[in-house]
């Protein structure tokens, strides 16, 4: 992307869960538009992915750092914010992409299952934004990756779907609370995208989702790049009048 098109030049973006799938695509897109990037990842196995991704995005003339922190742990938000401030001195964009998905029927639910999902999908983003407030610049952006599951009522998704609904609700509250700094806060609601997270739910689940896409206007899985493009819009100057909203990227996906 040419310098004239680097509309995020000088901005600093945090992307949680940034080494795989949608997160990786978001990191690449924001960097291509000129943003310096803080790439969060969880496990030791992702360290090499983070290093490779840093080398890739540097080709856009931007800086990038990585920070290992499990969004389900209490110290992760502060650790990520400290890494961002130490490297760049400020924060402009927060993309709460890191998440976990695990489906269980209501009769099989446990407290452990609930805590695993809510700690990552809700508590983590909530306290990441809280820790960021002193460093979040005017006209900043908060972008939360939700899910079409938040609105579908898929069997077995009591905990996962409600965690994503909670994230959308938090996003609307932040739009109000942070408006005095001209910070926007929005959610992106992807439909089925074939990522590692989706594949981890098993071939039977993936096959079921594939069949369900036949009901959509565009009968296919989405791509990570298509979701990243929506994030790119919300991160840029064109979206200043968009806040407290949910942008769906699902190809007209319907669950009947």
Automatic annotation (TrEMBL):
Task: Name the keywords, alphabetized.
Answer: NADP, Oxidoreductase
- Drop me one GO molecular function for this one: oxidoreductase activity, acting on CH-OH group of donors
Query: Keyword DNA repair: yes or no?
Result: no
Keyword Oxidoreductase among record annotations = yes
PROSITE patterns, A to Z: ADH_SHORT
Gene3D superfamilies documented for this protein: NAD(P)-binding Rossmann-like Domain
Every Ketoreductase domain range: 11-196
State which residue ranges cross the membrane: none
| Entry's family note | Belongs to the short-chain dehydrogenases/reductases (SDR) family.
Q: What is this protein called?
A: Ketoreductase domain-containing protein
Native organism: Mortierella isabellina (Filamentous fungus)
